[in-house]
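Chapter summary example.
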Amino acid sequence: MHIPVIATIAALWSLIFQQCYVAQARGPVTYVVGDDLGWTLEANPESWTRGKKFYAGDILEFKYDTDEANVVVVEKKDHDDCSVSETAVFYTSGDDNIQLVFGANYFICSDLPNQCAGGMKMAINATSRPPRPLRAH
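The structure predicted for these 137 residues follows.
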């Protein structure tokens, strides 16, 4: 076979491969924190995160009664101590959405009396999104 014929065959195979297989990334997922119970002590937020894999871009939706809870994003030390420092970010709408960022750990708790110490907190590590497996068309 001549070199131009081999190059042409290789180019055709490359085009066929590109047309048959597409790599797509998984899009963001929205998680309702606590599922049907929402952002409550009964939902046991620390346990709710177990077994879930969170990726950058995923969204945490916090649904709660504003008379009974709020959402506060804090530093790790504050999460561990159930305290709130000047760097904390407060959410109080009752239906708050927080998008996870790659590499950031989110330490989220309610600052209302005794709730954090009672278990209304969680730590999340958002990792990079894996590519979706190749699939045939």
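To summarize the output: The chain has three helices and nine strands.
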